[in-house]
Amino acid sequence: MDLGSGSMIKNLSQQNSCHNNEGPCLLPLKQQDNNTKGKRLWDGNTNATSTFSTVSIMKLAKQRLLRIKSRDVGSGAASLLIASELEDQSECDALPSGEASEDMELALLLQAAAEKVANRQWVQAQKLLSLCDLSASINGNPVQRVVYYFSEGLRERIDRESGRYLAEEFGERLRMKKPLDVQQAEIHLRPDLMECQQEFPLQLASQSAAIQAILDAVERSKRVHLIDFGINNGSHWTLIMQNLANRYDCPLEILRITAVGSSKEMLEAVGNQLSSFAKSLRLPFEFLMVISELKDLKPDHFDFQRDEAVAIYSEFRLSTQLACPNHLETLLQVVKNINPFIMAIIEIEATVNTRDFPTRFYNGLVFCSAVFDALRHTLEHRATFRKWMEEVVFCQMIGNMVATEGRRRLVRFESIVFWRDFLAKCGMMETEFSNLAVTQAGILLRRCNKSSSCSINVDGKSLIFGWEGTSIHSVSAWKFKDH
Q1: How far, in Å, CA of 253 to CA of 251, rounded?
Q2: Domain boundaries defined on the chain
């Protein structure tokens, strides 16, 4: 799962010039299980599982924490653990046992620590986090790994809000982390990353649906121009290139792809790979680059030709502009001026763009737990890729989401409900996906190691891809009224 990888993490290290620091809270806490409403198009879950997933453990821990709080047993770590033990004895049939029971206790401690942080009770929060350290591990099971990263995020938040971030020890801890240059890592690992991402079912199925929406929109066009707002490794374009190369009813005269990004070296590497692939297909092809941040994009950055059908593809990019809503509005004005045949959008289907820290923390915790489970089950033989995703992408994503506020908080995922409202206000119309798009996505999900955990739901005219009941991606297609 790419998550915008290099481009998103690069944004986390930048300062923003916006004065509008926070986005709206759209969903109440009772809806934060992130389940999708609407018609279920495909669900591989035919047999219930007896094991406890990371998400279920996090949710059960949340329920237990609420029950313990209602009994007013005290706020210290010792009181919390005693109350938890008593509950185990009274409700043992309904709770996990063995390793799952230990994971439940760990999840309980983490969420209790988050509440203390929200209440600015730093000392009690630190004590609970110290207990988390006894089991949380970057090399443990998914629960232990998720708790590790969220614990680090809480510690950084404590340091920032208590003023300790000015202290020498905090600066030393940040220096010890030495975050990788993600774009350089992507260039170095490109062949392996492309191969692994093409095996991650939710990523591949989401891309397939978006690509098919574009193919449907340009099916009668001989000259096609695709604009990618965040091309990453470019593997998704091999799908459309193969399709266009085999299109005989309306032979293609030229395919042009314009990639937008801030790293010329990275875009050149992708362009060389795609050009080589097009040559192997004997596909007329031209690769163009726009070296620019999305917020600085202008219509005259693009080279358009007569009679070409223009389509825009945006994967995990629009949410990166939410820290400054005027940036997103400016970008969509550029899109309107381009007036594409279609704009295909893939976004993270989670609501973490809220001022309310407990809600944001829990939403992010559930989402990341689902992704860690999905990576574990679908890419068991790709341990290097899983570790790269967790230790590079998710480490920095979780840290930004949990530890920062205001313009520094750039991880602001929203639900399809938000995007539908926002894009409609910009004059865009949601379009339905074809049966072929849905069918192909379902076939890709069925091929994965644990297809029973995957699902496709429809929300409005958009598709929601999920893992064991938790929404992961939204895929939507949009047009302006002229088209």
Answers
A1: 7
A2: 26-34+53-183+352-406
